Amino acid sequence: MTKSRIKRLILLLVLLVFSSVFMAGCGQQSTQDADGDSETGDRSEAVDSTATLDKIYAFYDKVQLGQTKAEVDTALGVTAKEPMTDVFQYTDANGNGVMIGLSSVFSQDGNSKVVFNKSVEGLEAYLITLPDDKRVTDEQAQSITEGMTYEETKAKLGGDGYELSSTQGFEGKPEIDRV
User: Fold this and answer.
1) pTM
2) How far lies 76's CA from each of 4, 27, 59, 97, in Å?
3) DSSP string for residues in 75-123
4) Which of 45, 96, 98, 178 is at a distance of 20 to 30 A from 163, taking alpha carbons?
5) Percent of the chain scoring above 90 in pLDDT
6) How far is Cα 77 from Cα 72, in angstroms, rounded to an integer?
7) Distance of CA 131 to the CA centre of its chain
8) In angstroms, how far is the first alpha carbon of the chain from the final one?
9) What are phi and psi of 85, to 5 degrees?
10) 151 phi and psi, to 5 degrees?
11) pLDDT at site 167
């Protein structure tokens, strides 16, 4: 892989992270309270957590690393928004979303653009509504140390966590970010 390709890949990854943060901030819904004042939507509403997660991930899981944009379009059945070159955001009728990044670096022929990164959109609103017994405590967070394996981390935190994104690793194995 040439240095210019690596630089382009790094730039694209930085842009993906920036656009995810930007899109998350722009996605907050506004409501009016009894006085007519605008405020961010109330997070204290009861949420059926299993159904919410199922809907979010049912949409997200339709996208696989290595698919072409045409395959993603067919799998998701919605039109993508294109915030920047080779980065597309898809949102279903329920507001669940997935953002993908395309690159030819990870394609079989080196020319076709395929999904090398996907990130779930809309999970933030769900995570804010989690009950206290589902949140990571300060004690748990402080027990996590650099170099721990995923299995060791799961044991300390009591579960898998929630996948935020998956990126095609250079060795061919996906690198998954979780929270």
Assistant:
1) 0.64
2) 32, 20, 7, 10
3) HH-SPPEEEETTEEEEE-TTS-EEEEEEESTTSSSSSS-EEEEEEEESH
4) 45
5) 26
6) 8
7) 21
8) 31
9) -55, 130
10) -65, -40
11) 92
